[in-house]
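Honest question from a wet-lab person: if I give you the sequences of every part of a complex, can you actually get the arrangement of the whole thing, not just the pieces? Trying it with mine:
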Amino acid sequence: MRFLFANHAQNAYQSLRSSRVRSGLTMLGVTIGIASITAILSLSGGASKVISDQIKALGGNIAVIRPGVVQDPISSLTNSNSHRDFAASTLTEADIVYVRNSEHVQSVAPIMILGGTIKADSKAPDGTPIVATTPELASISNLQVRDGQFLDDSISQDTAVIGTQLSIDIFGTESSIGKTVTIRGKPFTIVGVLKLQNDPINYNQVDFDNAVIINFASGKSLNRSVAQIQQINIKADSTDNLNSIINHLNQVITASHKGEKDFSILSGDQIAQPTSQPFYTIAAVTTAIAAISLLVGGIGIMNIMLVTVAERTREIGIRKALGASNGGISWQFLIESLAISIGGGIAGYVVGYIVSFGISTFLTFDPIINWQIATTAIVVSIIMGTIFGIYPAIRAARKDPIESLRQYS
Amino acid sequence: MANNTPPVIRLRGLKKRYGIGDAENYAIDGIDLTVKRGEFIAIMGPSGCGKTTLLNILGLLDHSTEGDYKLDGQSVKSISKRKQARIRSRQIGFVFQSFNLIPRLNVIENVALPLTYKGVTKTKRLKMASAALANFHLNEREYYKPYQLSGGQTQRVAIARALVNDPSIILADEPTGNLDSRSSHVIMEELADLHKRGNTIIMVTHNPRLTTYASRVITMLDGKIDTDTMTLAALQKPANQKRALGKHSKKRKPKRKKK
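Yes, you can. This is the full assembly:
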């Protein structure tokens, strides 16, 4: 049986070589599908890795509370989650107090992201985030200032810290300390400029280079005294105590929310799930392309295999007369379709990485290379080859040897 | 001739029907036949008398509608399809009129093909195929493609392929049908040589001259056996004389009705 298998593989190779253009075009369908999958996985893996590296660099004692229940990765890949931005957050100011009063919590920083016009010498680009938080954010997220200072409770409430890039955009200079910026019509004095972070993807979901940071209280007053909390960052006094804090907070906050678990507390790699909006849109579109091209590619394989079976009817008859069993014949054609799909899969894997490295030159992170992606690519192509090759193979095996031998003779 | 061995093939009331209802037509209409090991049988008859169908049934490529076919004493109906493929691979060698080499494969790969289904390793396969080709003086053509050979050479390759497994039964369907008389002669010499080495050969032919090589000639008509004769060559052997005389007490009568 082993020899038969090797022989089939050699046979498939010869047969595919003898009709190179046809096999190449058939493989192309699989290649495009697998390339899209590889590109999505390697880029999303790269994005997750950026965040998990940040968390690790911060000491691994960070947890975040986010409103809503976190979906599993598959459904969050296809469901772009856009409504979340507009829905009222389920987190309240009371929750911040619960966190602050918990044991082993070193510091707490709520994050409230607001939209609105930011004006100085020139107007800030649309969608520039206004982040309202507490001074502790600097220590939790390791935000450093290049000039001036971070927010401080001891100085005036109407102060702001600004990202380097935003400073250049609205003031034309990096050193904008002491200048005034108008946020939603209210003037704020700039007390600090952040160091260039250059990581638009992070677990705070804010690109701090392009953001203005104000005090939590000011943010609330801008928002008609309503706290709209997108996230609460928690830093434990040590990594060992993180789990006990999470368990404790889960109980306390659930109780205070009338028993509804309408929030999630994430730590470690859970935080790393990329959640940024454009990323999801791209991922959703590419997933759709991948699915369609895999389906079309699979139909192409089936089509070509049916043609091959019809062309080689006589060969099937000869082989049967020489002692091939039905199983032997169906294996021969199944292996041929597997050769197409695996060949296309390997090409797709390579092309996928070329594409994702190409894309990553426009991004701030690199695609990751790991065995899971390689395995996924191979397994998907094997499944395709089997699903779309099994029907032609069975048809080949069922051919009547006498009818087959009579063909073209 | 080995008279004492059990018959290789034993047919009883074999019928093969094509079509149903009004279009019903018996390609084989009740054949009784016993073939002993080492016989060289030539089957003759007009087109459409069921020769090829009979050969296909003997080679387990087709199945009878009625009647019993015992191969080596075992009823074919009781053999599973998988086992039948095994028998085709190990005991039966086919030679076709249209050669039926696989055009994609070269000569030696074509000859080695039956061995793959027997589970022989590649190196051994090629060695055996090369040895089989050597018997037919085709060593120099091993890496030719079938279309690069002459008709006679192609048919010798086909015979080499049929023999590479060392089958006990060789079924040949008009092996010389497409060849000129010189090539036909060469092919027939090869078959006669195989017969001498103890193989059972059943050959369908249109050419009456070729029956001189056979030990027994069967003519068919309308799906039935018309005549079944020992040839002169076979009768010259004392064992056969005894058999022919003992049964029918008619000396050297070349033709006898079976029924």
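Two things worth pointing out. The interface with chain A takes residues 56, 59, 61-62, 81-82, 85-86, 88-90, 92, 94, 96, 98, 100-102, 104-105, 113-114, 116-122, 161, 165 of chain B (CB under 8 Å). The first strand of chain B starts at residue 9 and ends at 18.
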